[in-house]
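Two proteins follow. First one:
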Amino acid sequence: MPCLRINLSLFILLPSLASTATILNTVQVPTECKTCPYTLCPNKAAYSNSQSITLSCWTEGTNIVDDTTWLKSQDNCFVTQYDLLEYPGDYTTALPSCGDILPSYTRTTARTRYMTDCYFTPAVNEKRLAPKHYKYGIDLPLLCTAHNRSALMGRTTWFKTPSNCYVHETTLWDVEDADELDDCGPLPPGLTPDDHVPETTTTTSSVVAKQTGGVREKGSRTGTGTGIGKRWLYNTTIGEEYVNCTEKASVMPSQTRRVYEFGQAVVPQCATWGDSERGNGTGIIFLFTTDFSYVRDWETDPGLREDFYRENYYPPCEWFTDTES
């Protein structure tokens, strides 16, 4: 579909020309300064912790921490009170109004090709769990493009969704009109999920709400829930002479989708526990591949557990339940 520009800011009330008041304040957390006073608008500037900025007027936008007040900086972009040191007064009386400013951003749609994590920033080294886990085969709205960011499988383009998080290009089919999307803009160094308040979105599945930190031995599946080290698409190869890639994650008879040969490249999307291989009650790990079928982890080389982050934080396939942004 053609890329659309959502531009409702056709009517802006100008503040009184007689007022020249400004306020100097200091940024208290890494801060995104938005082109309009809404969290889904692109970034125009990025401020680091303790940076001084000059505020010239106020307006209303996305509700952040029970407050809809946004403030225009010297870079002609908007931040919230939540981003700044506490002001001992009322911005709405100390500063002139910027006028009514409505959202303005681009939008297109792409289909998810694989299970797709959506991260707080366009990077694969998040230290918190991704807020969204999209299923494959859904139509996902995209709002802007982040170029030359953290690489995944040799590619460096990310897209922001209406959930105010980023998906990587390798998890999507080709994005039509990608070159017409806004640039997402700069990000401040050190931005964390605590500094990056998400837009209110659809309710997350109860499965996702019970995330426990990765694929571990059965009976030992509790985790800190504090981190995921890498994105889950990774390159591995078949380590056995022949391996069946099956419809279900089970050692019981299951339809074979395809047969891999020794040394053939395989890309897992996520992992899940299958049933016992020898009836001894010990589950085995199955990998759901980009061929949309399952192989046993021990049939691959390197295996999932040969990497620290994958061993501790690799996502169960059951997490990927989101079908809307």
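Second one, unrelated to the first:
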Amino acid sequence: MARKLLLTPIRRLGLELCCLYAATPPAFTLLGVLLYLMRIDGIDDATWTGAWSALTAYGALRMATHETGAPRILLTDRPRSLLPALHGISALLLLTLFLGPHIVNHLLGLLGEDVHRDVMTWLRHFYRNAAVQPALVAVFGFQVISGLVLLCQPQSQPISPFQVLQRASGLYLAVFIPAHLNSVFNLARRNGVETDYAWATGQPAGLLDDAWNIRLVPHYALAILLLAIHLACAVRVVLMAHGVRERTANGWAWILMLAGGVLDAAVLAGMLGMRL
């Protein structure tokens, strides 16, 4: 994972398309929710196919007309800007105040819906506070916007595989967050639906036995894993910036990714019906 790659125009296009492909699960979920809110039924697949056909055609045209010349170099481990630091600080706040407890709450779904509900009710005294909830949404908004700015920002160093992972996972999260917020606020709460474990797992049909709900399996399955990958890549950058050897920093990144994968699998197992 130490090898770095200079981005030619074709490679850059490939990277952009791969990042978009990585974000397809939350994007497809967001599309379904938006069509449902507009009361347009039965055209999810056709709309999705049309959108990706247009994107594929765009990519083909870009490849056929790409500019020649020297490779364009992208990315660096240490961007010269305050924005990466602010992005990291807001991520730490979200992880500590919301995402960490929220993920643990979902992990407790393995013990049953009653346990999940009890912990959720207790946490909501904080999450749904009249001052805290808007602040959390605002920080999520900053996280998405700042992340997209960083994603589109060219830098002065070759790209490494870890940076590719960071970009792809970041774009996934940039789509997942507004998709999830839209589902919670516009779809559920606006219609008086309780956003509990039964709602998250698509009850009574479940996630696997319903033609619409099954799209939520990859939507949820990749969320925690790619969050862990994104955080692991960021931790790697911070460690190297503080003098830690690249090999050691890479090792810690892999450990965090592995831990995220285990946590992700456990949460998904609970959502699919496994109980301890």
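SUMMARY FIELD: The chain has a mean pLDDT of 85. Residues 9-271 form one domain.
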